[in-house]
Amino acid sequence: MHHHMHDHGPGSGLWESLLPAAAVILLAAAYLFLAGRARHRNPVQGWRHRRTASFLTGCALLAGALLPPLAPFAHGDFRGHMAQHVLIGMYAPLALVLGMPVTLLLRTLPAARGRALMGVLHSRPARVLAHPVTALVLSTGTLALLYFTPLYNATMNQPVLHWLMHTHFLLSGCLFAWITAGPDPAPTRPGVPTRLVVLGIAVAAHATISQLIYGGFLINVHAPIDQVQGGAEIMYYGGDIAELLLAAALVTTWRPARHRRQGADRPVPSGVVRTGAG
Q1: Which residues contact 38 (CB under 8 A, 6 or more apart)?
Q2: Is the pLDDT at 66 greater than 90, yes or no?
Q3: DSSP state string for 74-120
Q4: What is the pTM of this model?
């Protein structure tokens, strides 16, 4: 079975389950280790269990998307692929981001490394990458590229492209969730109205792309029509629910400026780290 990966493409082969499982377990273990360390270093401030629960939920959603039964089904069925895409690119990122991993790192790193991390966060490349428009193009704009060009069909036959696609979904999804609704410090974070507009554009773009896929316009996916339409419905409704959750998170993570003085327990520029809720 393991040797037929190129015959059947991604989804077959024992290692295709073992690698993502190991990666997700490592991610969860690293977070739990740091959360324990944060509680130990500052028992008063501690680290909220709901943050840990949120991050672990994100890990579980990732595992659900990347492991059987969904992963093998996704390779043979466009509906499965779309369910995977929505989980990896929208639901898991929101849960991971609400776990405040950046703040957790800042609380547990030695002071000098914490300052270095803040330096990276406020560098020009980070500011460009973390701009809502960049995040929007990377997370939503690339969907048109994937489904309206031969790219999707290529990912089905090339395991490396397939994994790159998953990685892109995850990273761009995390970037978008972090900028629009994340409680973690960010290089630039426009006001709530601007972020709601960006989210609105994402909702409209998602709806448009899923309707074009459903209608068979522009689409370049080698799959039966019922699968394509089913996938489009998953993208449409699944995306809507995810974006409503993002909007809810945006509103609940927003806090008036007077609460910002509760920074993490390390020297960081004032007004940057809003970790009162950590």
Answers
A1: 45, 46, 47, 104, 107, 108, 278
A2: yes
A3: HHH-HHHHHHHHHIIIIIHHHHHHHT-HHHHHHHHS-HHHHHHHHHH
A4: 0.87
